[in-house]
Amino acid sequence: MPWALTADRLEHQAGIPLFEQGEDGYHPTSAGHQVLTIADKIEALVTELEAVLSANADAEQVELRVAVAAELGSEFLQDLTDFSRLHPHIRLRISTSHEPEDDVVTRKCEVGLCLVDPLPRHLRGIRIATLRQAGYASTTYLDHKGRGLAPQEYDWVRCTSSSRVRAMKQWDDIFCRTIRVSAYVDNWSALRGSAEQGLGAAFLWTFVADSEPRLNRVTPLHEELGIGLHLVVRDDVPMDQATRQFMNDMAKRLPVRVGNT
After folding, report:
1. Is the Cα torsion angle 97, 103, 108, 111 positive or negative in sign?
2. I need a labelling partner for 235 at 20 to 30 A (CA). Which of 102, 107, 108, 255 fits?
3. Would you say domain 60-128+229-261 falls under CATH 3.40.710.10?
4. What is the value of pTM for the model shown?
5. What is the pLDDT of residues 126-174, one digit of tens each?
6. What's the CA gap between 44 and 32, in Å, rounded?
7. For strand 19-22 and strand 62-69, is the pairing parallel, antiparallel, or unpaired?
8. Higher-confidence residue: 46 or 217?
């Protein structure tokens, strides 16, 4: 591989190791991380040069695999669509995953949109925001059930799908023994839709539910339940042009979408 040959040459010239072997493969040393940072800058300059030289040429379409945390559902689909329209030469292959960060590490995808704190080993990336959750119910449901009641007096919709997101697990620990469950669903989209249609209250992302006029918050915001939203890539692979364009674009779009940090 060209990068492996370059790394070997750099290690020989510098006289210091750039990568070290662990149980799960090779990973950058402190000096290796610095080299990767510089390599990214060089790649960006090369990309800029290529863009200038081929400004009037049709760009060859490339594929970029992106794994999105299943707990986010399709909330960022519009942002991904806008990116695709702006960069038609990049064909996105989007998948949902309960472990998008692991998918990046195992090379099932190039980029992960993850809900993690802290950032796992062997990954680098951009922290977009802290996402938080609260309980919500529809106006229709509250008109029927009553407003200002204790959370335990409402009917709740719960999500049965397995989740590693701490906020969701803690919500279950707090409420699961004291609430009446009106329905179980197996994914985020169904959870949100059930609350909007008045099936019961549900624990939803505030950046989604606060902007939905049909939903009303029925529990306090649990600040301690926040989770980091990150865009991540492997820490041992320089970003190519498509990955860099995606990271830079999403780093601008997503904070506007979620509206907090």
Report:
1. positive
2. 255
3. no
4. 0.74
5. 999 999 888 999 999 999 999 999 888 999 998 876 555 655 666 666 6
6. 18
7. unpaired
8. 217
